[in-house]
Amino acid sequence: xxxxxxxxxxxxxxxxxxxxxxxxxxxxxxxxxxxxxxxxxxxxxxxxxxxxxxxxxxxxxxxxxxxxxxxxxxxxxxxxxxxxxxxxxxxxxxxxxxxxxxxxxxxxxxxxxxxxxxxxxxxxxxxxxxxxxxxxxxxxxxxxxxxxxxxxxxxxxxxxxxxxxxxxxxxxxxxxxxxxxxxxxxxxxxxxxxxxxxxxxxxxxxxxxxxxxxxxxxxxxxxxxxxxxxxxxxxxxxxxxxxxxxxxxxxxxxxxxxxxxxxxxxxxxxx
Length: 271
Fold this sequence. Notes:
Blueprint lengths: L3 E4 L16 E4 L1 H40 L5 H7 L11 H7 L2 E8 L7 E7 L9 E8 L16 H4 L3 H4 E3 L13 H4 L20 H4 L7 H9 L3 H6 L6 E2 L5 H6 L10 E2 L5
Antiparallel strand pairs: 1-2, 3-4, 4-5, 5-6, 7-8
């Protein structure tokens, strides 16, 4: 049986005897198949756990939803605290329009829960007549095959899910009340230089809805980060906490004018 070759782990740079360990290693075709099957089993287990967690959390999110609606300015504040959104909220009118936001909700696709639709619920406002603005990340299923699900409903096609290939963001036309309030017209998205897919200026936050593409991955950040951690984003406690060094308080007492420029160390998350 001819052996197949596989690259060694990039982390194993130096062996015990000091020689380079970043070289090709040989593995039999039989062992290679075993590792592939093991990888599939692990991916299946992770996908099952993810789906079960989403199903378990859904009624909890529904309970949370009712409570958050009673807290003034909850979602505008939480959204503002999401890293990167300041680029899209640079205009005072954007901030004012978002002050009417009273709810954000995520609806998962029943066939492929990694795809979703975002719902932004607004109070009556002077900018647009829509009560709900949606941003759908539509699932594009691969060609139908004889793909038999396992006992947990997972198929081989699900294991091959790829965001770039199987997801199509959709645009939503906003019903602006007046041209003077049309924020996407006043602050349009400015295209980048030739060959650059990223806009040079995102313009209004509401371009996120009226343009199908999402070059800044705002939707993914909202669905997978902001939505599950909404309370922490509202209070400003989202993300890793910082742990400062206090190796020697005596040193500070001896030289009060000395400035410690060492950056705070990130505290490692525990599983």
